[in-house]
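SAMPLE LOG
Freezer: B-3
Tube label: C17
Construct: single chain, 278 aa
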Amino acid sequence: MAKKKKQVEVVEEPQVQETVVVEAPKPKPTPVVEKPKKKGWEFKDRVYYLRGNKKPLSRSIKASNIYWFDEEKGFNREMKYCKNQQTCFVDEMSGDQRLEHIVFRSGALFVPKQEVVLQKLLSLYHPDRDSLYYEYKPVEIANNEIEILEMEVEALVAAKNVDIDTAEAIMRVEIGSEVSRMSSKELKRDLLLYAKQNPVLFLELLNDDNVILRNFGIRATEEGLIKLSNDQRHFEWGSTGRKLMTVPFDEHPYSALAQWFKTDEGMEVYSNIEKRLN
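STRUCTURE (predicted):
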């Protein structure tokens, strides 16, 4: 008799649904922007000098009954120098006000760094600042001197490389008709000296095309190629007397001629004269 097979009961395991946890994106940190630091008052000894060449043994300036317009508050604030106060503004003072004199000795006043109230009054608020006296600032003086020296070098280099016609035009502004009687060496020497002594004006003249055209017109007149009428009202050809241009009222003749050379008609005349001068 056959044996019955045992039935194995299969128990199904319950399926657990996995939950996927998605992490929220982390917020980006806000960049920290450092605020620019305000430049505060620099604690240092300061020296003040009277303007001009005079250096009296003693000179007092106003220490009271002076005013400074405060833009934030919108009114004039009264000031006085009291050594026993922490401010020069009367509306901020408290207690007794012992007025002190502000005296320059031999044209100078030294104020140590501890006397901040007097320094601020003189450097920031006093109405006579930069007119009757000034604060000595060696750094600013050095910067100004460097700028002047650099401009002087620039002017000298430009003067060295300038052509003879341009040199003549620039020097004519300075010495007038004498330039026509100078040799090229004399002209070059005087131009270098002029550039050294007046670098700013020299560079302005060098970049002013009207100066070159004015000189061109004067040279043409001196050579007799063109001539200016006796009443200085118009220019004409020297050979034929035919009128070239009329000088506008109240203008310098050669300045007007320089402007006319830039017109279409004037450029043709300029080319004609240039060929004859060369």
